[in-house]
Amino acid sequence: MKVIVITGGPCAGKTSALTCVRERFEQAGVPAYIVPEAATDLILEGVAPWTCSSVLDFQTRVIALQLERESAVAEEAKKAERDAGEPVIVCDRGVFDSGAYLTDEEFSQALAGNGLDRIHALSRYDAVFHLESVAKDDASAYTRQNNDARFENAAEAADADERGLRAWALHPSVHVIGNFASFEEKVDALCTEIGKELGIPELVFHRHTPILVSACLLGEPCRYDGASVPCSAVQALAESRKLVPVCPEQLGGLPTPRTPSEIQLDGRVVDRTGDDRTAAFVAGAHKALSIAREQGCKQAILKSRSPSCGVHQVYDGAFSGALVPGRGVAAACLADAGIELFDELDVS
Question: What is the mean pLDDT of residues 244-272?
């Protein structure tokens, strides 16, 4: 089973994000188990840095409770694994968060007091997702009213955010989720990173924004030979996401069916008969981008290997069937505009 940590600075939206992440896992059919945050619960129960003999004493207790909860949740997840499939354990913070409040020597003492060293503590988690505090970008948006255990002011919260990120710096897979215009966008970005890390396509695509899709993947007969190449995984996304179909080659004025084309070494697009189709491909690419912008698309799922839509590879231009690394004309145009690209093989 995979174990991930969702952490972040004060007022980063972590608690609300955890609820959303769990819902997304359920919708994707992936069993998810949440390990509650230890520090907040201890403070609410009256055990705090200012009631303990020292901050080291408090953080040693935090780590102990964190480990106890992680073990209990892991046992339950293992029991259910046989029936429900491989689960994901999502920790609301992890043991390295304590390092943000201690010196290096103190943190080593706190770990040792719980039978751990840094290497074994890091190896407990497969990935870490750090949500940035709103205090880093807009101090006026920072609040303590939604968390009785939060005591930092905005400046202290921004500093705590930086310390927390540094505490996890040695982990090989740390993902930083910045602030967005809306909380929904922040959750989308978090779920996208989790989905990529864990190989769960259903989490990769934003719930709140439409996805641009090569029309042939949705069953439209618009391929160069007049056929379609429907992708069941892409079609299934229509149940939970708004999909915006486009065919850049048709948008550029090319007929269907049409003579197959390939990108040449000099960047031109030429069909099998030698006719230069570059202008049509470029025009179609810009029209596809205009549609993406009009619809608010931030992601696109495109047909692999296509001279318009290829994301990772295209044909070599010699009509030999050989593939080379590269992008189609429309794919490159979309990527340059900041749209995140996938092909159907990334989804299937």
Answer: 97
pLDDT at residue 190 is higher than 90: yes
Domain 2-204: which topology? Rossmann fold (3.40.50)
Token pair of 205 as six digits: 């695509």
In angstroms, the CA 147 to CA 164 distance is 18
Please state at what angle helix 329-336 crosses helix 278-295, rounded to 10 degrees: 40
Residue ranges in the chain assigned as alpha helix (H): 14-27, 38-44, 55-84, 104-112, 118-122, 154-167, 183-198, 201-204, 232-237, 248-251, 278-295, 329-336, 344-347
Count Cα neighbours of 3 within 13 Å in the Cβ-side half-sphere: 20
What is the C-alpha separation between 114 and 190, in angstroms, rounded?
31
Tell me if 229 sits within 8 A of 223, measured CB to CB: yes
For the entire predicted model, the pTM comes to: 0.78
- SS3 call for 35: strand
Are the beta carbons of 344 and 298 closer than 8 angstroms? no
pLDDT of 147 reads: 63
* Residue 179 pLDDT grade (very low, low, confident, very high; cuts 50, 70, 90): very high
CA-to-CA distance for 214 and 216, rounded, in angstroms?
Answer: 6
Residue 145 has pLDDT above 90, yes or no: no
Whole-number Å distance between alpha carbons of 182 and 198: 25
Answer yes or no: are the C-beta atoms of 298 and 272 closer than 8 Å. Answer: no
The confidence score (pLDDT) of residue 137 equals 80
Q: How many angstroms separate the CA atoms of 14 and 24, rounded?
A: 15
The domain locations on the chain are 2-204, 211-347
CB 17 within 8 A of CB 142: no
What's the rounded mean pLDDT across residues 100-113?
96
pLDDT at 151 over 90: no
